[in-house]
Amino acid sequence: MAGTEPSEIDAFLEALPGVPPRGLTACDGWTAHEVVAHLVSGAELLAEQARAHLDGTPAPVVDDWAARDLPYQAMDDRLLRRRLETGERDMTQLLEPLVAADPAAVVPGLGWGMPVGEIVLHMRQEFAVHRWDLTGDDAGTDEILARPELLGHSVRMLQESLLATGLAGETGDISARIRCPRQPDLLVEVRDGKGTLALVDPDDSPAVETDPAARLLLLWGRRPSDPRRVRSDLPPSQLRHLQQLLRGF
Asked: For the Mycothiol-dependent maleylpyruvate isomerase metal-binding domain, which residue ranges apply (predicted)?
């Protein structure tokens, strides 16, 4: 990040010592230990895949991400937290030359088939959202979650996965906006069972109104602790439909 703003990983690591390993988080079924295990698993895999590409060797392939997390969940928590710092550092250093060469390039065998620049954004977003999962609302988390590039990444690359759970239980069409002052509206639509997300010019239609940090949380199936941060002009049935759709992972 430019200037003095903390990176998402630095903010996560700063908050982590205050969170006990068995502390419950906003991720259903996961304690802080499982959240850290998931992040270490992803960072070390991306580092291994990037190193393989740079060395011209076959990249490791993952078919079951949940299964990949299991050995990390079994680790001693102090070791796991040290692995988070070293794994993220290795991942960042190995991705840097790939991003510098062409951030729009899709590198075979790396990540989820995203352009390499989007992979970097994805990991930034993982650390940002999971920091909130550990600590809830605070000023530091709000500043990070409000970064427009994180919302943009979700809209461009993750709409299918972010809407999958909600679509599985919803069949009706919907068109609703989530609005923040001086920013594009987030348009959430379902047509014939297919869900889409888009950032569009604001209009005067009824909408859910909130702040940028809370909007990213809503998109990821979370809600800020203070309900006054989110207000709605939508009819109750439409608001209920939107909330059911944005159930996250």
From this structure: 7-134
